[in-house]
Amino acid sequence: MRTHLVSLETLRTAWRLGPVNIARVLLYRLSLRVGLNRAVRRPPAAVSGPFFRVPERLRPERTPREGWYAWPEAFGLRVAPWEGAMAAPPDWSRSLISGQAVPDPRRPWWRIGDFDAGVGDIKGVWEASRYDWVLAAAQQALAAPDQERREEALARLNHWLTDAARANPPWLGPNWKCGQEASIRVLHLAMAALLLGQVEAPEPGLAALISAHLTRIAPTLHYALAQDNNHGTSEAAALFVGGSWLADLGLPGGAAWERRGRRWLENRAARLIGEDGSFSQHSVTYHRVLLDTLSMAERWRRALGRRPFSDRFLRRARAATAWLGNLTDPLNGDAPNLGANDGARFLPLTDSDYRDFRPSVQLATALFADARAYTDCPAADEVLAWLDLPPPARHQPWGRSARYADGGYLVARTGGVLALLRYPRFRFRPAQSDLLHLDLWLHGENLLRDAGTYSYNPPADDGPDWNRYFPGVAAHNTVQFDDRDQMPRLGRFLFGAWPSAEAVAGPDDAGSGCVTMAAGYRDWLGAEHHRQLRVAPNRLTVQDRVAGFRARAVLRWRLPPGEWRWQDDETLVCGPRTLTVSATVPIRERRLVEGWESRYYSRKSPLPVLEIEIGEAGTLTTEWAFPE
Fold it and tell me: Which domain holds residue 323?
């Protein structure tokens, strides 16, 4: 019976993904199979440098990044340098995660699998070829404290680009496999040219490199659009940025690529961003990817003097800025580890931590709201300075209590507390089983935590099935029914049977600094969960009413690492903080177990998890006291 239901839900989910998107994917796969796609049958000529020349204007007042210049990075963290340290270019087919190299890296890109490339997670290979180091070397060439280092930085920039072009001839190897990866390179090359003042008259090798990338991106754009995610925005932005650049240089294809890129960037902003700023991917880090993409496109548009984007585009960009600004802590820049976290940071111009979202929020606020989100964050202002954007005079702090009905989020802010409740509202596919997940923050510290992602293709010998754990309900602060996820898993990145929310309320001011909010749902097998919250500056009360399950329900609270201990049968303590859970029905078991979180892609660490199990319908009440 359950197998039959899963099959039925697969069909329903396919329909909700959209017949047009399904057709785009099928057409893409067919075009590769029969060799008709231009990205498999018409590779451009190999490209050679030099790509950048000595800048005419130095920036000695600026602070260049050391990351990806003094040390290699992967997903926001330092990694061990390869042989030759940072003087020699990396092995472009070798993973920065596993250290393994793709076998036979000169194969055509369409013959290399995403998940069977021979290196584990292929993102470890792609990381060096995202060209974060291009930005770092350009900054060093402009602002290093001595001439010798500036000259070395420019020489390294050209040497690495030449080596990358040699090792990755058009259409061969893993680094041509993904149109979005090619798009990130285009955007980073364009931003480097902007920094170096070489947009109007770039070196011929750079123009040829941009053209080769757009020739790869354009024929598979329809596949990116079918994903309804950051692939479409990234690839459209690259076509607009690269196409407008080539058009100004009088090179073939530029004007057509520019028109197509603008059209689909406008389309993606209108389709994927809700009026309230919610993005299709239900993810804080992917939201940053979106915002950085829009910011680079807008900064580039201004640099080339192109006509403005539409009013609708600008409204959606402002709303998306406010959404991320509202979830970002102004003290340390961190934000809930909501949804999939693939380690991406598209515009790294400072050495601020990967989890500091303030530079991206500041840039987008300046571009789309003509204001500063932060007046006391040097790293955020540094990004504006690098891109020659004067800090706006107006201050626009984003933090507030809000309901994001387009995406399914309730946010309560009071005092130094941020509470985020995720409820089911799915216009687009969910990637995690996180219904009614609750994230809690106090003065920038994450008290109730989301697990993150860890890896899209973790090593098979690395313990449990992490592909099931991290996206699953057990990795979230919510209730699990009968040892299953809240939605049936239909694929690596796809859940089915998307429920609708019930009884959504708030956030409402309850007086004395308290905020209340609530939401519920009924899943595909009849289990029900309704959650009510009362959020105060030093206390959180949660009531979870559950019913409709067969054998058991387990409430989980994923706690910050610390010396947690039982004070009595109902209460956990850690320093001055206390966590008490009671129920209207017998509690079968209370246990403190080891769970896992991944705040940085490809890394995981343990944390304590409180599990409360009941065997019949009832209400669980949690009291979280955290003195200010």
Answer: 276-288+302-395
